[in-house]
Design brief:
Distance between the termini: 43 Å
Order of helices and strands: HHHHHHHHHHHHHHHHHHHHHHHHHHHH
Structural class: mainly alpha
Radius of gyration: 30 Å
Strand content: under 5%
Oligomer: single chain
Shape: flat
Length: 520
């Protein structure tokens, strides 16, 4: 019998036992952990819920449910469950470790640092815990403390090259390049072919202008790891600095073959192409950059000069104008636009630009300023949002489109094949909560639902608040309130609501959480 058929058999047996208000919690824990092992996270959560309902004093189901939520990117739910596990058993270090990792993903490094400090006290031989503790202190800019913790790591594991790597990087952040180089030499001595160590060494050499030495070390890195686009880009920069343009171009081309959407690769190759006169190809690179970030004014200006070089004067004028609107005191922009305007016969516009430049130069020389206008960035008001288009709350994750799961439930949620839309209470919810006369919670629910559909988002949220205040077991209320808060960019509380909805059985909530974590 296959493991999936076995799980199904256990599930059917379990249904029968629930009717007698009794379950074998040990058995359910085994099934839940099996589901977790086979990455059926939503299924495992449903089983852990059952164990928690029957034995809420146990810490393990909270911990493992938190782990399942973590894999669904529900970091808020992970923190909540780990906290519940710690309240029931404060001597289980894995709860602190997992909660710390969830805090890191929420960028709450101070809370994470406290948890990893506690976990390190309880499991002093766990190197990953020490590493994450260092990371938290670096993010908190506590470099001295981070440095002292790395010393503990190196003392415990003297042959651990990455310990020296981390210490060298901390020294670089502390602007102590000489100490960093000494430490990284020790790392290479400990492990001769550690790519990270050699990469750091090459970076220090590049920073010092020792480009030939850096090229040699980047070449060694690429021999060990030939598909590292970052090292190719750095080696290209070194080649560029010693005027080896052909070699630099080869490195950029290869890096972009490996990572076609590498922003820095396109940017630097565009600059190099401009330097060697390949203007049309350079324009292609800057088009790519501006498709990703239309507000990159330096890229816009670079493209403008290239468009002017190839005779697209109207395109150049457009880009120069964009830059000038953003930086109205950028006089060279006016000079370049004046040049482009003359080439299309707009002599009045060119004269106006040149007069502006002259006027500003005189003002600067004699110490007074002239009035300037600056384009204000238009912000979208909340009332301007399309409140009916709930699909915009989520984006497809291209990296997992091709993954197929045997479990239909897991596939729908974990492949992100779910629609974000407001939910009405399920038949089950009505059967549980609706009585005659109708339960107040459901009266407010229906009112909130109608308000949301008509765009009255604030009023709807307030009424969903009342629903939850009256009855905190209606999953759809949390789900809908979470969606509405996402529309208002109240992300933290929205994720909390969606996490609660998922915990109560609306598993597509985890799909929306994952997508919004990905966007973030």
């Amino acid at each position: 019998m296959s493991i999936r058929r076995l799980i199904l058999s256990i599930f059917v047996t379990f249904i029968a036992s629930v009717s007698n208000a009794q379950i074998n919690t040990d058995r359910m824990m085994t099934v839940a952990r099996n589901s977790l092992y086979y990455e059926d996270y939503v299924m495992s959560i449903s089983y852990f819920n059952l164990v928690i309902n029957y034995k809420p004093h146990l810490y393990e189901p909270y911990f493992y449910r938190g782990l399942a939520k973590f894999y669904l990117d529900d970091f808020s739910g992970t923190v909540s469950d780990c906290t519940a596990a710690i309240n029931r058993n404060p001597f289980y270090p894995n709860s602190y470790e997992l909660r710390g990792l969830a805090y890191i993903n929420q960028k709450d490094f101070l809370s994470a640092e406290k948890d990893y400090t506690k976990a390190a006290d309880m499991m002093p031989e766990s190197r990953p815990i020490w590493n994450n503790l260092v990371y938290c202190n670096i993010e908190l800019d506590s470099l001295q403390r981070a440095d002292s913790i790395v010393d503990i790591i190196i003392k415990k594991w003297s042959k651990y090259a990455d310990g020296y790597n981390i210490k060298a990087q901390i020294k670089l952040q502390m602007k102590d390049t000489a100490a960093a180089e000494t430490i990284i030499d020790k790392a290479i001595e400990v492990e001769r072919y550690n790519v990270k160590s050699i990469t750091i060494k090459a970076g220090i050499q590049m920073q010092r202008g020792q480009y030939k030495g850096a090229i040699k070390n980047y070449t060694e890195c690429l021999r060990l790891d030939p598909k590292n686009a970052g090292n190719l880009i750095n080696r290209a920069l070194c080649h560029y600095h010693i005027d080896q343009y052909r070699e630099a171009m080869k490195d950029y081309d290869l890096a972009l073959e490996l990572e076609p959407k590498n922003f820095i690769g396109h940017y630097n190759r565009g600059l190099l192409r401009a330097d060697v006169g390949e203007d049309n190809l350079a324009i292609e690179d800057f088009n790519f950059i501006l498709d990703i970030d239309p507000n990159d004014m330096l890229a816009t200006f670079n493209r403008a000069t290239l468009l002017e070089n190839v005779g697209d004067y109207q395109g150049a004028i457009r880009d120069y104008t964009t830059v000038i609107k953003e930086f109205p005191k950028f006089l060279y922009g006016y000079e370049r636009r004046a040049s482009a305007r003359r080439k299309v016969g707009d002599f009045a516009g060119a004269n106006k630009d040149e007069e502006h430049v002259l006027k500003e130069q005189i003002a600067h020389k004699y110490g007074y300023s002239t009035p300037t206008s600056r384009m204000k960035n238009k912000t979208i008001k909340k009332s301007e949002r399309n409140l009916d288009d709930y699909r915009k709350l989520v984006e497809e994750d291209d990296s997992i489109k091709d993954r197929v799961y045997e479990s239909e439930l897991r596939g729908k949620v974990q492949n992100h094949d779910q629609e974000a839309k407001l939910l009405k209470p399920s038949t089950r919810t009505y059967n549980i909560y609706k009585v005659n006369p109708p339960d107040d919670a459901l009266i407010y629910f229906e009112k909130a639902y109608e308000e949301a559909q008509s765009g009255k988002i604030g009023e709807a949220i307030k009424d969903f608040d009342k629903v939850i205040e009256i009855n905190d077991g209606i999953a759809e209320a949390y789900f809908n309130r979470g969606l509405l808060k996402l529309l208002l960019d109240e992300r933290t509380t929205a994720i909390y609501d969606l996490s609660k909805a998922g915990e109560l059985g609306i598993y597509q909530a985890y799909n929306i959480i994952k997508k919004n974590q990905k966007k973030q």
